[in-house]
Amino acid sequence: MKISEEKRTELEDRAFEIRRLSLEMITWSQWGHIGGSFSMAELLAVLYWHEMKLNPGEPLMENRDRLILSKAHGSPALYAALASRRYYPVDKIYQYCELGGLEGHTHIDSAPGIEASGGPLGMGLSVAVGMALGLRKKENPRSRVYCLLGDGECNEGNIWEAAMAASHYHLDNVIAIVDYNKAMAKGLIWEMMGVEPFADKWASFGWNVQEIDGHDIDEITSTLYRARWVLANGKPNVIIAHTVKGKGIEQAEFNYKWHTHAPDPDTADEMMRELCRNYGRPEQGYSRHDMEVKKETFYGGE
Fold first, then answer.
1. Architecture (CATH level 2) of domain 5-262
2. 46, 11 in Cβ contact below 8 A?
């Protein structure tokens, strides 16, 4: 299923905005995961502005599609997507990691649009399987449960228990998407705990498997369409999305040292300008740069 040039441009703009807001909130809070947030920006853009059935004004709509962020440390990108999709005001992102604000790992009570709490890796697919079973018992055949997984997270045994259960119960209303960005917290995935042959593993558990460039809007849209409508054949679906950790910022790309790291205001300003140049946007710096400098001066950088 092809999309129009106008739609492609819109989705690319949304992906850029997800990266921009993620950088803003991570810098402001001085905590977060730039690498894994940036790698899934296009995936979230397509899901929230093209693929999923949802209503920001009615976030608990019964026949909505659900998204479970299993790699819950990538919360900045999800919060950015939800804010841009108008689930809540954009300024709420500056409550990231503040008491009573947006949790560092997704929490179901922290904001509308969050379908499940996360933190311990490996849990999300089990949650998605449970939701999918629940939708079947409610005789809701059209809603889908999407689950965004990390590649390093797939070292967890719980992932494969859930994969086995989804296949056993023929849950073709589950669509897992693996953000295969090749880097974990302490190194490259093939050095720490390799997952290859990755596609073969999923197939051996009884899943339909597709592999794509996770930054190519056309590939993402057509593959999601195929998973939802063509491959609804009694088998769960997984999309292995090959991505670049820290996509758009040279020093962060494929760099595990930016897995968990927050830039200082000056570095964030440089990163924001680089991001704008790389995506052909009018150049702008970190929008809260001056306020952040004052904050660091007042609190002594703590």
1. 3-Layer(aba) Sandwich (3.40)
2. yes
